[in-house]
């Protein structure tokens, strides 16, 4: 009797638990599938075949292709073959990938080769959503396919299967939004931004009728958030003129940003993204910008904020947030205003790993003053050398003139780079940045020529020095080669923002190399390599010259020795070596010292020639006084100039 009673109670308990589970069940919204694609080395491709509806989605893989095929979207249809050459997977035989399906946004994203590919762009709430995607069974085992398949972080099998297939169920989207409305979003900059909980996106359609004078669109109020803190979009009258095919514009507000992130830890989006679109039209270069007011949590001052837009023109598959075409205005600690001249997706990007520059205002003032003085000094040196060349034919004069010209142009461009960045914008900065890079490399090259010419005059005594045309070809033509190559590669030169530590919301804009991985690589391969070679060769040459002439009687005068070494240092550019010492407790001192010496290099160059001329007058008819100001060998070794 007792066993029967126990069995009956157990059955009743199980029945009650099933009823409770059925009454409180929620839809399994998302699909997160990851695996390792085993393929052959060589050309690879992604095959996408998506259509609207709700039946199933299949992820299959073979020797050279990965396929996404199915019918689960509400408004996204796509059928194409996408080469994966740009991802650099040809040399590998295994590639990790993940597929994410977000039914409430109707967004499908593939993560492969470290890149996020948006197969279906996010949308507002649709009528029906395809949810509850469940695995339909085990596919055949194969040599090439998908191994270590995981569904929502749960391992399915270690075997290599040809495909995985998921069956979906159609559900009303609005009911799902009500289910999700209990979630919330929050921005936290230490250590991460946001979470995956979200509210549904919603859209507002504006009909721009005749006489349209602008319109404000406000996001729906979120639970617990005041209405005045909601994101607001102001559509200007200029949008009506730019939209030639239709008069309707759609504003979509996304509270979830997890599928908009680029995947870089250095930058993170705020919790809200706004999409502004006009059907079948590309709107850009508006005469009056669209204004978007974002309200957010307080962000520490060390973390800079800037308005960005999703650039869908360069590569529609990849999330590419750019600041181009948007102006950032800080209206308060919790309010950022974005003014943008085009239509796409917009948000505010937070720099998670702050890299501000200390004492930026003081350094900028010193640099500007030094560049202005150096430009005038280089002009004076050039005029002096032109007059000098009429009286004597020194082989070193053309080299000094080349250095004065390149250094003067470098300081001139650097003096105006901030103004040109703010006035001309990105397009002008591409040219100015390339010109600044060229003059910098040209200056380094002429300094290297000075080092080589000194070596020639000191050690190659009985051979004539190369002619002036050879030096001009090396000093002016050679630096143009890497600049032309980088310009052809593209996306290297443009507006660069330098963030001050005391006000990260107000960065200093200049025309230079962009702050991108590709531009940073170009900087190290060209500029830093040139500085390293120049500084090492200059220091070695100073040591060789010192050993050669230290026994001379005139060198035993401390004044002559100091001025000679200091003068050669100006020619060789050894002060640029301080760039490598900008670390540790003395970094501020090194930074200011480097700024002063390099910004005023043109002035020091003029001072060198003046001091040598003054020393010649003081020496009268002595051997030192009879030497010319141009030739290192004449100055240091007192040997007759070779013609």
UniProtKB/TrEMBL annotation:
Q: How does it sit in the membrane?
A: Multi-pass membrane protein
Q: Does the keyword Signal apply?
A: yes
Q: Any idea where this protein resides?
A: Membrane
What InterPro entries is this protein classified in? GAIN_B, GAIN_dom_sf, GPCR_2-like_7TM, GPCR_2_secretin-like, GPS
Which cellular component terms (GO) are annotated to the entry?
A: plasma membrane
Region annotation (Disordered) ranges: 622-643
Q: Which residues cross the membrane?
A: 360-385, 397-420, 440-462, 469-489, 524-546, 558-578, 590-610
One GO biological process from the UniProt record? adenylate cyclase-activating G protein-coupled receptor signaling pathway
Tell me the first and last residues of the signal peptide. Answer: 1-26
Residue stretches of biased makeup (Low complexity):
622-632
Listed SMART domains: GPS
Indicate the segments forming the GAIN-B domain, all copies: 212-356
Q: Which UniProt keywords apply?
A: Disulfide bond, Membrane, Signal, Transmembrane, Transmembrane helix
**What's the superkingdom here?**
Eukaryota
Q: Any idea where the G-protein coupled receptors family 2 profile domain is?
A: 363-613
Establish whether keyword Phosphoprotein is in the entry: no
PANTHER family for this protein: ADHESION G PROTEIN-COUPLED RECEPTOR G1-RELATED (PTHR12011:SF435), ADHESION G-PROTEIN COUPLED RECEPTOR (PTHR12011)
**Record-given protein name:** Adhesion G protein-coupled receptor G1
């Amino acid at each position: 009797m007792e066993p029967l009673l126990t069995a009956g109670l157990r059955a009743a308990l199980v029945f009650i638990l099933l009823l409770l589970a059925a009454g409180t069940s929620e839809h399994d919204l998302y699909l997160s599938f990851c695996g390792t694609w085993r393929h052959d080395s060589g050309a690879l491709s992604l095959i996408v075949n998506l259509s609207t509806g709700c039946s199933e989605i299949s992820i299959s893989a073979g020797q050279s292709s990965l396929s996404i095929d199915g019918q689960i979207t509400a408004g996204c249809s796509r059928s194409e073959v996408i080469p994966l050459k740009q991802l650099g997977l040809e040399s590998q035989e295994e590639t990790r990938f993940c597929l994410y399906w977000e039914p409430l946004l109707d967004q499908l994203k593939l993560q492969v080769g470290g890149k996020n590919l948006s197969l279906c762009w996010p949308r507002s709430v649709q009528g029906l959503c395809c949810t509850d995607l469940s695995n339909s069974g085990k596919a055949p085992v194969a040599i090439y396919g998908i191994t270590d398949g995981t569904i929502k972080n749960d391992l399915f099998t270690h075997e290599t299967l040809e495909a995985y297939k998921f069956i979906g169920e159609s559900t009303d989207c609005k009911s799902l939004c009500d289910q999700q409305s209990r979630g919330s979003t929050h921005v936290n900059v230490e250590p991460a931004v946001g979470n995956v909980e979200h509210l549904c996106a919603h859209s507002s359609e504006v009909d721009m009728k005749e006489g349209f004078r602008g319109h404000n669109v406000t996001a729906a109020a979120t639970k617990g958030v005041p209405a005045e803190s909601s994101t607001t979009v102001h559509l200007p009258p200029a949008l009506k003129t730019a939209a030639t095919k239709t008069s309707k514009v759609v504003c979509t507000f996304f509270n979830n940003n997890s599928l908009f992130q680029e995947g870089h830890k250095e930058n993170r989006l705020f919790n809200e993204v706004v999409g502004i679109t006009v059907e079948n039209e590309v709107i850009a270069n508006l005469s009056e910008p669209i204004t978007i007011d974002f309200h957010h949590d307080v962000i520490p001052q060390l973390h800079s904020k800037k308005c960005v837009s999703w650039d869908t023109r360069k590569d529609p598959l990849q999330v590419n947030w750019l600041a181009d075409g948007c102006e950032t205005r800080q209206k308060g600690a919790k309010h950022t205003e974005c003014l943008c001249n085009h239509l796409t997706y917009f948000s505010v990007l937070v720099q998670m790993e702050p890299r501000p520059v200390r004492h930026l205002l003081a350094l900028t003032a010193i640099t500007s003053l030094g560049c202005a003085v150096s430009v005038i000094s280089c002009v004076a040196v050039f005029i002096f050398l032109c007059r000098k060349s009429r009286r004597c034919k020194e082989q070193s004069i053309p080299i000094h003139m080349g250095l004065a010209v390149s250094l003067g142009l470098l300081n001139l461009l650097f003096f105006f780079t901030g103004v040109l960045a703010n006035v001309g914008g990105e397009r002008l900065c591409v040219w100015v940045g390339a010109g600044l890079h060229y003059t910098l490399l040209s200056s380094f090259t002429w300094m290297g020529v000075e080092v080589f010419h000194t070596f020639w005059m000191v050690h190659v005594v009985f051979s004539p020095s190369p002619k002036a045309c050879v030096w001009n070809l090396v000093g002016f033509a050679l630096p143009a080669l890497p600049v032309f190559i980088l310009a052809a590669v593209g996306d290297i030169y443009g507006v660069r923002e330098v963030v001050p530590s005391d006000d990260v919301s107000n960065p200093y804009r200049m025309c230079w190399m962009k702050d991108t991985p590709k531009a940073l690589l170009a900087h190290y391969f060209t500029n830093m390599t040139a500085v390293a070679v120049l500084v090492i060769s200059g220091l070695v040459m100073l040591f060789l010259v010192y050993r050669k002439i230290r026994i001379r009687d005139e060198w035993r005068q401390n004044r002559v020795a100091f001025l000679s070494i200091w003068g050669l240092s100006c020619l060789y550019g050894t002060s640029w070596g301080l760039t490598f010492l900008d670390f540790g407790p003395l970094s501020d001192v090194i930074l200011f010292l480097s700024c002063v010496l390099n910004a005023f290099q043109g002035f020091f160059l003029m001072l060198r020639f003046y001091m040598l001329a003054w020393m010649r007058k003081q020496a009268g008819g002595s051997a030192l006084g009879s030497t010319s100001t141009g030739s290192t060998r004449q100055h240091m070794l007192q040997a007759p100039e070779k013609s």
